[in-house]
Amino acid sequence: MLTGDLRTHPRQKAEVPVMRRRLLALVAALSSLPLALTAAPSAHAADPTTMTNGFYVDPDSSAKRWVAANSGDGRTPAINASIANTPTARWFGSWSGTIGTATGAYVGAADAGDKLPILVAYNIYNRDYCGGHSAGGASSPSAYANWIAQFAGGIAGRPAVIVLEPDSLGDYGCMTQAQIDEREGMLTGALAEFNRQAPNTWVYLDAGNPAWASAATMAQRLHEAGLRQAHGFSLNVSNYLTTAENTAYGNAVNRELGARYGYTKPFVVDTSRNGNGSNGQWCNPSGRRIGTPTQLGGGAEMLLWIKVPGESDGNCGVGSGSSAGQFLPEVAYKMIYGY
Fold first, then answer.
1. Rounded CA separation 184/79 (Å)
2. Which of 34, 118, 187, 265 could crosslink 89 through cysteines, CB 3.0-4.6 Å?
């Protein structure tokens, strides 16, 4: 191997032609290999799970904050052991302040500990347009484009897992075709920003859940929103359907993608609240239970806690009187035991 500055090492100058001939021979040999060996399996060659040592536990999650402020509460030990110390996604939106600073600080802290952070981008224009419980988001498509570009820029080259805009592709029921086209354009633009600025991320475009849209419908929506640019898609975010149901649905979506568009993608499942499955309700149903903690594999590429157990879905169900995202300790406590 050549070392140092060639300008100050005359002997090494003579070695350069020899090395150049060897390199050219190597390139010629490689060029004769089948193309399949050089084809990238996804939008990014980097694998953030191999660049880190386990998942990052958010030190400022709503569960962590509640535990810290309520050391004398009888529910605290269980919530601390079963929820607060499980790696869970942090959600970013209009509440996050200067977004590039916020994402940069979060992935920087994870990177310092050699851990893989999970982030949720949740700020699309006309967010939750039909459901309403989590309505809001950026003020315009252009404002969203600027926000998501800064989001990606804050992450830069550090490893991360991104869940992109939960509910955005299931939420079509009351939208016009022009609004649908606008939304899909925003998602395609977001994926382009992550590809450009954050090369060591895996971005999962959210695909709702099995109870929302058929596999064929969701495959079309994913493709039209730019899924080919993403690493994969996410399922069951903030929902309660079992891992088996989601795995079957994800596989069905992939069959549709393969048949229609000639490609498939990995998927992840939110298992934070699906231990008892669903009772058919999505908004703070009673009797639910925490599921399999965050891990690689498990029927999907990863099982992730994307929604913090105990955080409200909105002013509904056992969370009556609460707002979306508010931590409800009694709901969290009961979710640990499934009642």
1. 38
2. 118
